[in-house]
């Protein structure tokens, strides 16, 4: 998502909502199909309606929805209104606050709550709740009030929020300098070979699917941003493994991307293919068992369990820990029961 910048066209003011540049190896593809791979929650009908209204531009020329995207085309989607995520509305949404003082608060976010507004999620976010409950929260570098870091919509767990400029600067520096401590618990597909290990690999946007990130290696290893994840096996559960992951860096989807990269996609992670049966038998009974696990845990199996940082005012190290949420705990218990009653 780009920052919106007004463009003049006659008397109308247009705002840029999206901007993409087609890769050099881009095969000819209708622009409505192309944009469906790049814009979250977009339907083909909506894209075709935008093209019909003259809102989709290629190389600064409006195009119809049957335009074929070519290598290095610059594609922009412009509308007469600013992106909705720039129009923040306070909302009375309850927050699970595990700690609060004059400088900061620590929130235990439930799965399903988006951290900040974005395409398709303009209300009901953590930020909508924060600006209702707290006045004068400081903006971060992306103009998002109070946010020091973020976790994905369907990841549950701990976030620290700054209540003043000094706390924002101090906490943001700790995350940048990698001195904050974060441990996640995840269920991943497959029985991990090693008891513990470290995954290193630059992470960036997938060149063909903008909704995913990927690890760049080989000739492309200089692309993306450096990312380091340390993992340790907590419990082996047959065709899945319960792991603890400690982040050294904080890239978007880092654990989800790194785990997929080493062949252990997160359980029920739909965006990265974990909602399919990736390990196990061909028995119908097993398929029913896994489907039941998916119903119990209808999201990726990832929880931000612990969070540690130095308090910006007192200089003391603070550490917070949470219980694994019920949906994930029930899924773990199902796998424990399955292993106990199978000859594997």
UniProtKB/TrEMBL annotation:
<dbReference type="InterPro" id="IPR036986">
    <property type="entry name" value="S4_RNA-bd_sf"/>
</dbReference>
<comment type="function">
    <text>Responsible for synthesis of pseudouridine from uracil.</text>
</comment>
<feature type="active site">
    <location>
        <position position="152"/>
    </location>
</feature>
<dbReference type="GO" id="GO:0003723">
    <property type="term" value="F:RNA binding"/>
</dbReference>
<dbReference type="Pfam" id="PF01479">
    <property type="entry name" value="S4"/>
</dbReference>
<keyword id="KW-0694">RNA-binding</keyword>
<dbReference type="GO" id="GO:0120159">
    <property type="term" value="F:rRNA pseudouridine synthase activity"/>
</dbReference>
<comment type="similarity">
    <text>Belongs to the pseudouridine synthase RluA family.</text>
</comment>
<dbReference type="InterPro" id="IPR006225">
    <property type="entry name" value="PsdUridine_synth_RluC/D"/>
</dbReference>
<dbReference type="InterPro" id="IPR006145">
    <property type="entry name" value="PsdUridine_synth_RsuA/RluA"/>
</dbReference>
<dbReference type="InterPro" id="IPR020103">
    <property type="entry name" value="PsdUridine_synth_cat_dom_sf"/>
</dbReference>
<dbReference type="GO" id="GO:0000455">
    <property type="term" value="P:enzyme-directed rRNA pseudouridine synthesis"/>
</dbReference>
<dbReference type="InterPro" id="IPR006224">
    <property type="entry name" value="PsdUridine_synth_RluA-like_CS"/>
</dbReference>
<dbReference type="InterPro" id="IPR050188">
    <property type="entry name" value="RluA_PseudoU_synthase"/>
</dbReference>
<feature type="domain" description="RNA-binding S4">
    <location>
        <begin position="29"/>
        <end position="88"/>
    </location>
</feature>
<dbReference type="InterPro" id="IPR002942">
    <property type="entry name" value="S4_RNA-bd"/>
</dbReference>
<keyword id="KW-0413">Isomerase</keyword>
<dbReference type="Pfam" id="PF00849">
    <property type="entry name" value="PseudoU_synth_2"/>
</dbReference>
<protein>
    <recommendedName>
        <fullName>Pseudouridine synthase</fullName>
        <ecNumber>5.4.99.-</ecNumber>
    </recommendedName>
</protein>
């Amino acid at each position: 998502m780009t920052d919106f910048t007004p463009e003049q066209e006659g008397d109308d003011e247009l705002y840029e909502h999206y901007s993409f540049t087609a890769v050099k190896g881009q095969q000819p593809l209708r622009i409505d199909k192309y944009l469906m791979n790049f814009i979250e929650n977009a339907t083909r009908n909506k894209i075709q309606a935008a093209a019909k209204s003259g809102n989709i531009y290629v190389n600064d020329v409006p195009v119809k929805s049957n335009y074929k995207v070519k290598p290095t085309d610059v594609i922009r989607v412009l509308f007469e209104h600013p992106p909705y995520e720039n129009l923040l509305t306070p909302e009375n949404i309850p927050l699970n606050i595990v700690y609060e003082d004059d400088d900061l608060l620590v929130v235990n976010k439930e799965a399903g709550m988006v951290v900040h507004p974005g395409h398709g999620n303009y209300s009901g976010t953590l930020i909508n709740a924060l600006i209702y409950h707290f006045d004068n929260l400081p903006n971060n570098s992306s103009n998002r009030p109070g946010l020091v870091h973020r976790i994905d919509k369907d990841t549950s767990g701990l976030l620290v929020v700054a209540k003043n400029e000094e706390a924002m600067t101090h906490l943001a520096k700790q995350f940048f300098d990698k001195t904050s401590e974060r441990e996640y618990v995840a269920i991943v597909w497959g029985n991990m070979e090693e008891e513990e290990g470290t995954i290193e690999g630059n992470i960036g946007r997938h060149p063909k699917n903008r909704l995913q990130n990927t690890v760049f290696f080989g000739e492309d290893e200089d692309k993306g941003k450096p990312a380091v994840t340390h993992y340790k096996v907590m419990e082996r559960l047959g065709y899945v493994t319960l792991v603890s992951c400690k982040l050294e860096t904080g890239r978007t989807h880092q654990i989800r991307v790194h785990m997929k990269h080493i062949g252990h996609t997160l359980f029920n992670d739909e965006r990265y293919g974990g909602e399919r049966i990736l390990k196990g038998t061909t028995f119908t009974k097993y398929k029913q068992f896994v489907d039941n696990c998916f119903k119990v845990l209808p999201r990726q199996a990832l929880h931000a369990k612990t969070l540690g940082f130095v308090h910006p005012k007192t200089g003391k190290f603070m550490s917070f820990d949470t219980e694994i949420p019920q949906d994930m705990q029930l899924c773990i218990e199902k796998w424990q029961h399955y292993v106990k009653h199978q000859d594997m």
